[in-house]
Amino acid sequence: VLKNWDRKNFKKDLSFNSSPKLGIQIEDDENSDVVKITKVEAKSVAQFAGLKEGDIITKIDEKPVTSVADAFNKIEVAKRKQFFTIGISRNGKQQDVKIKLAKKVMTRDL
After folding, report:
1. What is the model's pLDDT at position 27?
2. In the 8-state DSSP scheme, what is residue 32?
3. Neighbours of 46 (CB within 10 A)
4. Which of 19, 30, 35, 36 could form a disulfide with 57 if both were Cys (CB 3.0 to 4.6 A apart)?
């Protein structure tokens, strides 16, 4: 039983993660229209899917990617679904990586 329970603050502190985090950092290449993954967070959706630092993102759900802004916008749209695909180039070989996002998660600091 919680004593001195404050319903107003409980609701304020309760948050829904409506857009799960993929767990990558990306950057534009100065010399071309490619987007490179510069960091993959440990135990992230991206790591479990198989994305690696140095991978070049070529497409999101079959749509070409030409900049970080373009990749961000396409990933945000794709994240509305539970599954989507990121096309990458790794060591000169093209491949598709299937991404599965968790459903909405409710969190509360206690």
Report:
1. 95
2. S
3. 22
4. 35
Assign 109 a pLDDT band (cuts: 50, 70, 90). low
* 17-45 core/surface letters (b: 16 or more CB in 10 A; e: else): eeebebbbebebeeeeeebbbeebeeebb
Banded model confidence at residue 5, pLDDT cuts 50, 70, 90: very low
Q: What is the DSSP letter of 55?
A: P
The type of residue at 94 is Q
Percent of the chain whose predicted confidence (pLDDT) is above 90: 56
Determine if residue 45 is left, alpha or beta; phi over 0 gives left, psi from -120 to 50 gives alpha, anything else beta: alpha
Distance CA 91, CA 56 (A): 9
In terms of Cβ atoms closer than 10 Å to its own Cβ (0-12, 13-18, 19+), residue 97 is: middle
Collapsing DSSP to helix, strand or coil, 64 comes out as strand
